[in-house]
Specification:
mainly beta; Porin; 8-stranded antiparallel barrel; 15% helix; globular; OMP/PagP_B-barrel; signal; Porin family protein
């Protein structure tokens, strides 16, 4: 199944490259942001209370614009989570999820005004996570999966500020939904 998704992404990238016309504006964008939200674990035998956890991660992005509507995105993020359950429960059974992810995807955007854009992103990412409880490793997994996000971006000359909502799947066990904000620079 992973091979099929890689072929779809590669085909979409090639289609965008060969179908674009000359694009005279800045093509490169770098960004940094912070994302926070919740993590859900489907495997109750591993850790049933992870549903109540918040996650937070730092993200770094690079985008190359094919034209004013489409871009390819590369990103890296590093994050973790800790339980929000009852305080005494945390003293005796502290849970933590630590994860890293690297991904590639496509971004489509629509200008609302000269400085405001709505955007959507989707793609594949490589994740690696460790799930522990009271310093005991419960699960250590890595693999490939999907992500998707949608949001709004405000551009001020070459600088931008964005807010978006991202869904991040980490295999069959962990699914994260986060609210993200960030700043970017186009060149």
């Amino acid at each position: 199944m992973n091979n099929i998704l890689w072929h779809i992404i590669a085909s979409a990238l090639l289609l965008c490259v060969f179908s674009t016309t000359a694009y005279s504006e800045e093509k490169h964008k770098i960004g940094i942001g912070y994302e926070f939200g919740g993590a859900h674990v489907d495997d109750d035998t591993v850790l049933g209370k992870l549903d109540d956890n918040s996650i937070g991660h730092l993200s770094l992005t690079y985008e190359y614009s094919f034209n004013e509507k489409f871009a390819v995105e590369l990103f890296a993020l590093d994050g973790d989570t800790q339980s929000f359950s009852i305080i005494l429960d945390d003293l005796f059974s502290k849970s933590e999820l630590e994860y890293k992810s690297f991904g590639i995807g496509l971004r489509a955007q629509q200008a609302l005004t000269k400085r405001i854009n709505l955007f959507a992103k989707a793609g594949m990412h490589r994740y690696d996570y460790e799930l522990t409880r009271t310093d005991v490793l419960l699960n250590d997994s890595d693999g490939f999966s999907y992500y998707a996000s949608a949001g709004i971006e405000f551009q001020f000359y070459d600088f931008g500020v964005n807010v978006n909502y991202r869904l991040l799947d980490m295999g069959n066990e962990i699914f994260a939904s986060v609210l993200a904000w960030g700043v970017s620079y186009r060149f």
